[in-house]
UniProtKB/TrEMBL annotation:
GO terms for biological process: D-amino acid catabolic process. It comes from the Eukaryota. Gene3D superfamilies: D-Amino Acid Oxidase, subunit A, domain 2 (3.30.9.10), NAD(P)-binding Rossmann-like Domain (3.40.50.720). Pfam families: DAO (PF01266). This is FAD dependent oxidoreductase domain-containing protein. Keywords: FAD, Flavoprotein, Oxidoreductase, Signal.
Length: 359
């Protein structure tokens, strides 16, 4: 029997453990982590996310496209077939300001995503139907929103139902410590996100760095997901509004590499509220789901996304052949989690077949 430790219980680690067990039910899998769903810590990224599916891959980035695409199909299926997952289908609309389009020298094509021909219902919104004078381009498709606390709990339950085990551990300082968690496992999957390269013994030629994000969990409801990019003077900010299936919405956000402050930026909060009420007016319309006439904030979330130069790392370590890396999702942890897990399966399948060939 092949024994595996999945190190890390964020969305990537939990999903990878599920994909491995579904591929080979005989695997003995233990998810070992310092933080689990229900914990809130700035170093534990997954609880702070929005989250939805809207791939950040460029048209040339076929590797990230392959990682992101399986998530769209999975989330649509969960929304249709399993209400326990906390996923639902909503229209996903993206607006680009005149300022942003002008900066791109009017190249509208650069704002058309790679997935336009594969997602359901993608279209460019007719200009006369865009209700905002400062918007040059709008696109929309059939998207999904994931209610993070519900979905993380769902992943835990899925792992338990499949027979995977859980073990809470102190933060490990050296990657070799992972092999002592349950007695010399055959493989360790490094899905530790922000902490991936802070562990001694883990070498990466690419730069790994946290990127600060700030979101508002509000009681107000929206009809669908809306994002607006291209605010003059605020290159590290955009607006996104995601309505949750269980009520309320997430309003974000910002993209701030190098900012390690865990305190709320109150001026950003004020800007987010102004933008949200302008571009998603039903948020403050009592005629829509009895919304308040003001944005009612339940919680301000400040978290850090685990970015890696050149995107996710999913490969066998060059030094420790028992170590498989599975980190670097950046802001795409939820949408890329299924694809990352499936790629780990491919890596492990190749490793096991090679080891059998040597025997």
């Amino acid at each position: 029997m092949v024994k595996i430790i999945v190190l890390g219980a964020g969305v990537v680690g939990l999903t990878t453990a599920i994909e491995l067990k579904k591929w080979n039910p005989s695997l003995e899998i233990t998810i070992a982590a310092h933080h689990f769903p229900g914990d809130f810590d700035p170093s534990y990224t997954s609880p702070w996310a929005g989250a939805n599916w809207q791939s950040f891959a460029t048209g040339m980035d076929s590797q990230l496209q392959k990682i992101d695409w399986p998530g769209y199909e999975r989330f649509l299926r969960l929304a249709k077939n399993d209400p326990r997952a906390g996923v639902w289908v909503v229209d996903d609309t993206s607006y680009h300001t005149k300022y942003e389009v002008a900066a791109a020298k009017g190249n509208f094509q650069s704002f058309i995503p790679w997935y336009k021909d594969v997602v359901q219902g993608f279209k460019v919104i007719d200009e006369e139907k865009i209700p905002f004078g400062d918007i040059s381009l709008g696109t929309t498709f059939k998207g999904v929103v994931i209610t993070v606390p519900i979905y993380l709990s769902y992943l835990v339950q899925q792992n338990k139902e499949l027979g995977n085990k859980f073990k809470k551990i102190p933060l490990i300082k050296d990657i070799r410590e992972a092999r002592g968690i349950t007695g010399n496992p055959d493989y360790v999957i490094n899905a530790t996100g922000l902490g991936a390269t802070k562990i001694q013994g883990v070498q990466d030629k690419k730069i790994n760095f946290p990127v600060k994000g700030q979101t508002l969990l509000v009681k107000n409801n929206a009809k669908g997901t809306v994002s607006v990019s291209g605010f003059p003077g605020y290159t590290d900010e955009m607006l996104y509004v995601m309505p949750r299936r269980d009520g309320g919405s997430i309003i974000g956000g910002c993209f701030r590499p190098g900012d390690e402050s865990t305190t709320e930026d109150k001026e950003l909060t004020a800007r987010l509220i102004r933008r949200a009420t302008k571009y998603v007016p039903e948020l403050v319309n009592p005629k829509f789901k009895n919304n308040s006439t003001k944005i009612e904030i339940d919680k301000v979330n400040v978290g850090f996304r685990p970015f890696r130069e050149d995107g996710p790392r999913i490969e066998v370590d060059s030094k420790y052949k028992w170590l498989i890396h599975d980190y670097g999702a950046g802001a795409g942890g939820y949408q890329g989690s299924v694809g990352m897990g499936q790629k780990v399966v491919e890596v492990l399948k190749r490793e096991l077949s090679q080891s059998k060939a040597k025997i």
